[in-house]
C-alpha cells in the first residue's frame, strides 16, 4: 500500500509496529461521555478509531467516560450505543469508567502512600487563587505536607460520606511551579453527593477526567488513546499518572491528538445542542435539523454517506470548519444509487387533458431506479386530471423556459406528450387550472415514432383521483450563519433560523401508500425524501432529506 495515503495517526502506529509493538498489542477505544447525543463531530472520532480497528484487525472498545453524575444519564448511554451500531461498527467490549471506581480508589491510596497525593481542605476558590499564572509559579497549599496517615484517614472519610461537598479534594502532588498549569497539583477527586446512573449511591467521591482516562486505557490495555487537540497539554499529566502505576510487563497506552471537526451552519458541542433542545428551538435531540447522528438518521442520511464524508475529510492536526455541502454531496451520491424514484407534487396545479376520456385510467410502466436495473419497475396511474407543480406552468415564457407554456409541449415523465391550450384563473388572477391536449401515440416506451419524438422539458406529475396526500416537512439550515458559535459579541442562539422548518401537504403517487418509516425515495425533480417516524396509519409524514442538485429539466 502507498505509505503516503496513511494519515498521521497511522504513521505513528506503523512506526510503533516497526519498533517493537506486536500486531496483537493494538487496541483502540471510542470514549464518549454520556452527557448528550453523539453528533457529526463524534462521527469523525468513531470512524477514526473503528477504522483503525478494521485496518489492523484490532479490537475497539466502546468506553463510557461516566465520571460526572450531575450530567450523565442512561438515556444517553442507550442512544450512543444505538448510534455507533447504526454507523455500522461493532465494539469489542462495552466498558464504563465507573466500573473502575474501586480500582482507581485503590490506586489513589497507593499514590497517597508514596506521598504523591494529598487531601486539600481549602475551597475550590482558594485552590484556584494559588494556581499562579503560566509565567509565575503557583503557591503550595498549606495542606500539601499532611502525613500519609492523616491523608489516608481523610480520603477514607471522603469516600464514606463524612464530609460535605467542597470540604476536601484529593490532589496529586506534582509541581506548583510547572510551566504546564495542569501539572500544578491537579485535583484527582471531588466530593459529590449525587446518585450515579450506574453506581447509584455507592460513591460520593468521583474521579476527575485526567485521573480516570489514562488509567482506564491502562486497565483495558488500549495501545493508542486518540483524543482531540485540546487534550495536548494533558498528555504530560496522562503520562505522569501512568508513571506512578505502570507495571513493566504491561502495555503502556499512548495518548495522541487530532483536530476537532467542525461543520458549517451548525454547532457541534453537546452543551450547545442541549441548549437547542431545552430552549425548544428544536423538538428534541433527534430533530431532523440537528447535527446529531440520530437527527441525521431521522432526516434520511445513510450510515455510508456519513462514513464516506468522515473518510474524505480524514483527520487533521489543525482545527477547521468543513462545509456542510460536502456532507450533502456524499449523501446525494449515495442516495442517487439506492433511492427508488417516485413522483410527488408539492405545489399542485391542476391539468385537465381535454381529449382524454372522462373516467378512463391507465397504468403506465415506470422505472424505479435508472442507476440500478435490479430495482425493477412499477405501475403508475394516468387519468384525465393531473397535478403538476405550479412553477412548471407559465402563460408566456421565453425560449429558455423548458416547461409548460400556452401553445407549448412537454413530456409527462413515463407518460404522454401534452400541449397547453388554455388556462383558467381565479378573481385575483391566480392560475387555477390548465387545459391541455395529449398526443395518444406518444406514450413513453411504446416504441412508436411519436413516443420517440423529442420535446424540450419533462415534467413530473400525479393523477388527481389516485394521489395520496402526506405531510411534507421541508428543512432549511438550522442557523443563518456559517459559524454561529464563532462570534465573540453574539451568542450562537441569536443565529437560529426561524424558518428552518416548513410543513406542507404533498400529493404522491399511490405506490407510496405502503412506505415504511425510514424508507428513502427520490421525488423526481424535487429531492430526496424519507418517511418520518411521526407517520401513522392515518397520516404519512415525509422529511425532505436534501434537495437535488438543480440540473435536471429546469
Ligand atoms: P462535546 O463538546 O460535544 O461534549 P466532547 O469531546 O466533550 O464533545 P466526548 O463525549 O468526550 O465529547 O467525545 C468522545 C470522543 O469524541 C472524544 O475522543 C472526543 O475527542 C471526540 N470528539 C468530540 N467532538 C469531536 C469533534 N467535533 N471532532 C472530532 N472528534 C470529536
Ligand atoms: Mg469529553
Ligand atoms: Mg464535553
List the defining traits of the structure above.
554 residues; 25% helix; binds magnesium ion; alpha/beta; seven-stranded mixed beta sheet; binds adenosine-5'-triphosphate; Glutamyl-tRNA Synthetase, domain 2; disordered C terminus; Rossmann fold; 24% strand; Ribosomal Protein L25, Chain P
Short précis:
Helix content is 25%, strand content 24%.
Q: CATH topology of the largest domain, which one?
A: Rossmann fold
Q: What does the largest sheet look like?
A: 7 strands, mixed
Tell me the β content.
Answer: 15-25%
If classified by CATH, what would the architecture of the largest domain be? 3-Layer(aba) Sandwich
Report how far apart the termini are: 45 Å
Whole-angstrom Rg: 31 Å
**Structural class of the secondary elements?**
alpha/beta
Q: Which strand order spans the largest sheet, edge to edge or round the barrel?
A: 12-27-28-29-25-26-13
Q: Please tally the β strands and state the result.
A: 29
Supply the number of structural domains: 3
- Summarize model confidence as the mean pLDDT: 96
Helical content stands at 10-25%
What would you give as the CATH superfamily of the largest domain? HUPs
DSSP helical segment count? 12
Shape: elongated
Q: Class of the largest domain, according to the CATH hierarchy?
A: Alpha Beta
Contiguous uncertain segments of 5+ residues = 550-554
Unique bound compounds: adenosine-5'-triphosphate, magnesium ion
Amino acid at each position: 500500500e502507498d505509505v503516503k495515503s496513511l494519515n498521521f495517526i497511522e504513521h505513528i502506529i506503523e512506526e510503533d509496529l516497526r519498533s517493537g509493538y506486536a500486531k496483537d498489542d493494538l487496541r483502540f477505544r471510542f470514549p464518549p461521555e454520556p452527557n448528550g447525543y453523539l453528533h457529526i463531530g463524534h462521527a469523525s472520532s468513531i470512524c477514526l478509531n473503528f477504522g483503525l480497528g478494521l485496518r489492523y484487525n484490532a479490537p475497539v472498545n466502546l468506553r463510557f467516560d461516566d465520571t460526572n453524575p450531575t450530567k450523565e444519564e442512561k438515556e444517553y448511554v442507550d442512544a450512543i450505543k444505538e448510534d455507533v451500531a447504526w454507523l455500522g461498527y461493532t465494539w469489542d467490549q462495552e466498558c464504563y469508567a465507573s466500573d473502575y471506581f474501586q480500582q482507581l480508589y485503590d490506586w489513589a491510596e497507593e499514590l497517597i502512600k508514596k506521598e504523591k497525593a494529598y487531601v486539600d481542605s481549602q475551597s475550590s476558590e482558594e485552590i484556584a487563587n494559588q494556581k499562579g499564572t503560566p509565567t509565575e509559579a503557583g503557591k503550595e497549599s498549606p495542606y500539601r505536607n499532611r502525613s500519609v496517615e492523616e491523608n489516608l484517614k481523610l480520603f477514607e472519610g471522603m469516600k464514606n460520606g463524612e464530609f460535605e461537598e467542597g470540604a476536601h479534594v484529593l490532589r496529586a502532588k506534582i509541581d506548583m511551579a510547572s510551566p504546564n498549569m495542569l501539572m500544578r497539583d491537579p485535583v484527582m477527586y471531588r466530593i459529590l453527593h449525587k446518585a450515579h446512573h450506574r453506581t447509584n449511591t455507592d460513591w460520593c467521591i468521583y474521579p476527575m477526567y485526567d485521573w480516570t482516562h489514562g488509567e482506564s486505557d491502562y486497565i483495558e490495555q488500549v495501545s493508542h488513546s486518540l483524543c482531540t487537540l485540546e487534550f495536548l497539554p494533558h498528555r504530560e499529566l496522562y503520562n505522569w499518572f501512568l508513571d506512578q502505576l505502570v507495571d513493566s510487563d504491561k502495555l503502556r497506552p499512548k495518548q495522541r491528538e487530532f483536530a476537532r471537526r467542525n461543520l458549517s451552519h451548525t454547532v457541534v458541542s453537546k452543551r450547545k445542542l442541549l441548549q437547542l433542545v431545552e430552549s425548544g428551538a428544536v423538538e428534541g435531540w433527534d430533530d431532523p435539523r440537528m447535527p446529531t447522528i440520530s437527527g441525521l438518521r431521522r432526516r434520511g442520511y445513510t450510515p455510508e454517506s456519513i462514513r464516506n464524508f468522515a473518510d474524505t475529510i480524514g483527520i487533521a492536526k489543525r482545527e477547521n470548519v468543513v462545509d456542510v455541502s460536502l456532507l450533502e454531496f456524499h449523501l446525494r451520491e449515495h442516495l442517487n444509487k439506492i433511492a427508488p424514484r417516485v413522483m410527488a407534487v408539492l405545489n399542485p396545479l391542476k391539468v385537465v387533458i381535454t381529449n382524454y376520456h372522462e373516467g378512463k385510467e391507465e397504468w403506465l410502466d415506470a422505472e424505479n431506479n435508472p442507476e440500478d436495473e435490479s430495482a425493477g419497475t412499477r405501475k403508475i396511474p394516468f387519468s384525465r386530471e393531473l397535478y403538476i407543480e405550479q412553477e412548471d406552468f407559465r402563460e408566456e415564457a421565453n425560449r429558455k423556459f423548458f416547461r409548460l407554456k400556452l401553445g407549448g409541449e412537454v413530456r409527462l415523465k413515463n407518460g404522454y406528450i401534452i400541449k397547453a391550450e388554455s388556462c383558467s384563473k381565479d378573481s385575483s388572477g391566480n392560475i387555477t387550472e390548465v387545459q391541455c391536449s395529449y398526443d395518444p401515440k406518444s406514450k413513453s416506451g411504446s416504441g412508436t415514432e411519436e413516443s420517440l419524438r423529442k420535446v424540450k422539458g419533462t415534467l413530473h406529475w400525479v393523477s388527481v383521483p389516485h394521489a395520496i396526500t402526506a405531510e411534507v416537512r421541508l428543512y432549511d439550515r438550522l442557523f443563518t450563519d456559517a459559524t454561529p458559535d464563532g462570534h465573540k459579541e453574539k451568542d450562537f442562539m441569536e443565529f437560529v433560523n426561524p424558518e428552518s422548518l416548513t410543513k406542507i401537504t404533498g400529493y404522491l403517487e399511490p405506490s407510496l401508500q405502503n412506505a415504511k418509516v425510514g424508507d428513502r425515495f427520490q421525488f423526481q425533480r424535487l429531492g430526496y425524501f424519507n418517511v418520518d417516524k411521526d407517520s401513522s396509519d392515518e397520516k404519512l409524514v415525509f422529511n425532505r432529506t436534501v434537495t437535488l442538485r438543480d440540473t435536471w429539466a429546469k
